[in-house]
Amino acid sequence: MEARLVGEETQPDHWHASATNTEADLAPFTGADLNEARSRLSRLARIWVNRLDALTPEQLDRSPGVGWTFRQLAFRIAESTYYAEVVGDLTPDRMPERAERTPTP
Known about the structure:
The protein has helices at about 1-5, 30-55, 55-60, 70-80, 80-85. The protein is mostly helical. The radius of gyration is 18 Å and the shape is globular.
């Protein structure tokens, strides 16, 4: 969103999301990790809220360049709960024991 607002081309995503698992995907996730993730994600959410609140209705409903309008983008992100649902409840006392798994290519 920030790149499009200033007229830059967006950067292609070379990560390919969940197409592969890495060793990091299989690493233990502790209570401290959960606290850090919550903190980072809360700050990131605040950045989105602040940015979207600063846009006028006209800016929200136009698309500079190719792609969705900012309003469409915001709704798409708000509906994207797949990863949270797959991961489930990460409260330390509710985390299942991790079975030994091998990353898939």
